[in-house]
């Protein structure tokens, strides 16, 4: 196998599209080859197991959701108490602007629930992501330790699941929901 | 078609199992007939469209998750400020004790995101469920109007998605996470 980074990215992006459009059950190496317009067997060369393919998709989702440094800088420069509100709203904004990525993340978790092999590779990846986020909060002076950051993750996950599927309050701005939540935590 | 309520329930239960085990994409009338051990075409007789089948599953999930009156009574009789903590913990307990139902609810939402026909029947059902929950909170003296109840739904959804798939903090008791959240809201 010749390592071709661009091809690897194209395959991971195709895997994300399949996950977002068809759900985890539709994700096969063959479906990825077809969508990427590559010969049968290409996805298997780069990602030898289904778990590896799902991990490749997960890594690529996080790359594509990476915050822009300039925006994070703006948020940091903004007024004190509302920094965490702005930051969580920015997380939410990125997820809602990329429905396919956000839905694929949910599908990845569901795939992990159904397969121990998938859970084994996805769990350490997601937990490392949490640890990195806790460190980001710490170095950027945002309040919270691990427990608080996990609460924020749960709220954002629940809110994204709601907004991208069947919004219970379609007329309410999700940014306001996030702000209400962060302010409630801050007052503790 | 002869209406047979027990058969309708058996079909809805089979639909839930398929949803929970295989995801929304695996849910076909044929898969439900096979799992229920009924002749081909039975599920189609009771639920003429895929959207009707998903609504049947949704209705049955809510029936199966109905709280026990005796437990709600106990919670109501408990000390004032912690009533909402106890109630949310009871909601969480029921969902985590029935992983198949909880995962099927997430799958229903994902199916609605992928099909306007499904969204059209699932959305009013879920919104009616929210209205009933807001009314339950009001009549049981639990604080919060619609906005607060929706925040609770988001948190519980995010927490359930986490615990039933890839728990970010596997050693932490989810009941404690729910309590931390409700107490944060109460202090506002």
Automatic annotation (TrEMBL), chains A, B:
Residues 5-65 form the HTH tetR-type domain. It comes from the Bacteria. InterPro entries: Homeodomain-like_sf, HTH_TetR, TetR_C_31. Gene3D superfamilies: Tetracycline Repressor, domain 2. Residues 28-47 bind DNA. GO terms for molecular function: DNA binding. It holds the Pfam family TetR_C_31. Keywords: DNA-binding. This is TetR family transcriptional regulator.
